[in-house]
Amino acid sequence: MEGIGGDGASAAAPVNQWLNEFSKLYQFYLDKTTPHAVYRWIGTVVLAVIYALRVYHVQGFYIVSYGLGIYLLNLLIGFLSPLVDPEVESSNGSLLPTKGSDEFKPFIRRLPEFKFWYSFTKSFCIAFGMTFFSVFDVPVFWPILLCYWIVLFVLTMRRQMAHMIKYKYVPFSFGKQKYGGKKSYASGSGTRGD
């Protein structure tokens, strides 16, 4: 009886070791892509175009595309939403700092950019893989799904924009903010009247 369990464990050990090494290598390369946001998003756009061409070419898998669209909309809402919702926080207390030890906290997303990109890319990979299995090609009238998704997108984004306006936050930052204060005369090339 002891020999039966030992054979299965010894056969699984190399597989577990290989999976462990593969996951470490995968995480290593994933970590190396973190600072290269522009190139990551370019790769994701290329992947999205390949997926769209695949769906167009096979003229099917519209329900997969609809599910992908709903999932991407959910990711976008998380990306645009603050970590702490002001509607919930305002009932617990003041949003403004009341003591000297309180500090201003900038906009922090509920879903960080890297996780947004990773989930976005992973969803396109999964949807692309699903296009190779005919079981996922459910016949539907795709214009209705497209119209429903557009209505859902518009209503959701309108609600999100109203939330942003009401609580005065902008989920995007475009580099370092520049202030138009006093000019420095030390760097000026003015002449002195000697």
TrEMBL record:
GO terms for biological process: protein retention in ER lumen; retrograde vesicle-mediated transport, Golgi to endoplasmic reticulum. It is found in: Membrane. The keyword Nucleotidyltransferase does not apply. InterPro entries: Rer1. The keyword Transmembrane helix applies. It comes from the Eukaryota. It holds the Pfam family Rer1. PANTHER family: PROTEIN RER1, PROTEIN RER1A. Involved in the retrieval of endoplasmic reticulum membrane proteins from the early Golgi compartment. This is Protein RER1. It comes from Quillaja saponaria.
